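Batch job 17 of 40 flagged for manual review because the log was empty.
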Amino acid sequence: MVFQPAYSHLSAAELQARLEKGDQPTLVDVRTPGEYFQYHLANIQLIPIDEFASRCQSELKADDEIVLICEHGVRSERAAQYLASLGYENVATMDGGMAAYQGEVIHGE
């Protein structure tokens, strides 16, 4: 039997509702800087997937609620699997990624 570390999934609508309600999970964008610059959520931290393994443990607290986001949900799923394998217990990935998010976004920065 293969052990699969646990993490959860949020729909874009679920995350949007939580953010509008005032919830403040640690949001992490794992896209490239160029993708991030095009548009991203407010108060989100950029850790590109190609730097994720080398940066996540020093930049993300294991006891925080962490929501990982990419463009369509593939890279964030890989990042969620990685964090869960390190023992992070409150990790989620946003299904559908930024392409599915209908809320307010920031362009630039």
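Reviewer: the log was empty due to a logging misconfiguration, but the result itself is present. The two ends are 46 Å apart (CA to CA). Unflagging and moving on to job 18.
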